[in-house]
Specification:
eight-stranded parallel beta barrel; 2 domains; 9 helices; TIM Barrel; 34% helix
Length: 336
């Protein structure tokens, strides 16, 4: 009888205890994953962009190593406007602050980069002067044409030399491969700049079809490519703090050919017509619009950050401070 109970015990142990152990291991694994999800994400560098006039959005408590101070764009006279003193605008921030230069026109960028014109030396001199109170300069010229590639790189080399050891960083559009000719060639820029901020956002933009600003799959493709051509210590992946909305409205602020107006009146069944005292004609109508918005939450933003961390990328930049939910900053930190 004792042998019977002994073998019965062995039988039950074989079928019950291992499965119970496996179940417990699964529970432990799930618990560890949950704890990992709740832990703060730590990065070596965390950049935040601040627009001029919005300095109050930056809290000294935010875990940021660097601030990109987005000052006025190069004006119509190709001048870099004076920049406020750091102590006036950022009295409490202890990290590095870099003034950011931008240009809004392709034609203007072309002229500024032309070595035959005096504009290049003038703008470099102005940028260097205005950066004296800051830790570095970031060039965020997003309108440089591909045929100006070498002029752009030479401009950056000259600027870096005249900064005398201060950091030179460059913000560049997202790429998933090397283009045959490209002013934003990742490898070439990495030879010049101290940091490369890859703007991994605007996967879909205001005039494109509706879609995510920076989907995880798209960001991974950009990160995977960037890692092959940009040294690890120079690569900074940009993350968005904004959403976009698209409307299916077919009418809007646009011009119509005269002969098409009759068709519009019929299509919308317009019933409200006016004639002004000067004889100007107009009509009004109501229409229904469907709006599609792609957006982020604190959780989805953190998921994007976590995906970069898992991809061995330890430097992120956020566009821009003041657009985010402040709770976001409670979930990330600077690593030792």
């Amino acid at each position: 009888m004792k042998k019977f109970f002994f073998f019965l015990f062995l039988f039950l142990s074989f079928f019950y205890f291992p499965s119970n152990l496996f179940a417990q291991n699964e529970i432990n694994s799930q618990t560890e994953n949950a704890e990992s999800e709740n832990q703060k994400l730590a990065f070596k560098e965390l950049w935040g962009y601040v627009m001029i006039g919005e300095e109050s959005f930056l809290s000294a408590d935010y875990p940021l190593t660097d601030v990109g101070y987005f000052v006025s764009a190069v004006n119509n006279f190709s001048d870099f406007a004076p920049v406020p003193k750091r102590s006036e605008k950022f009295p409490n921030f202890k990290g590095r602050i870099h003034i950011v230069s931008s240009v809004d026109s392709k034609a203007q960028a072309h002229l500024l980069l032309d070595p035959k014109l005096p504009l290049r030396n003038k703008i470099i001199k102005q940028i260097v002067k205005e950066s004296q109170d800051y830790d570095g300069v970031q060039i965020d010229w997003e309108v440089v044409m591909k045929d100006d590639d070498k002029n752009f790189w030479n401009f950056l080399k000259m600027l870096k030399k005249r900064l005398h050891g201060k950091m030179l960083t460059v913000a560049i559009p997202a790429r998933t491969r090397t283009l045959e000719k490209d002013a934003y060639n990742y490898a070439e820029l990495s030879k010049i700049a101290d940091k490369i901020i890859v703007m991994a956002y605007d996967e879909h933009w205001s005039t494109s079809e509706p879609g995510p600003i920076a989907s995880l799959a798209w960001c991974k493709r950009i990160a995977d490519y960037s890692k092959t051509v940009i040294p690890e210590e120079k690569l900074v992946m940009g993350c968005p703090f904004y959403s976009r909305a698209w409307s299916d409205e077919s009418f809007g602020r646009k011009a119509y050919r005269m002969y098409r107006v009759d068709n519009v009146i019929k299509d919308v069944q317009a019933k409200t017509f006016k004639i002004s005292a000067n004889g100007d004609l107009s009509f009004s109508f109501d229409t229904t619009t469907r709006v599609t918005m792609f957006y982020d939450t604190v959780e989805s933003s953190l998921k994007r950050c976590r995906s970069y961390k898992e991809n061995k990328i330890d430097r992120l930049a956020f566009w821009r401070v003041g657009q985010e939910n402040p709770e976001f900053w409670e979930n990330i930190e600077i690593s030792d």
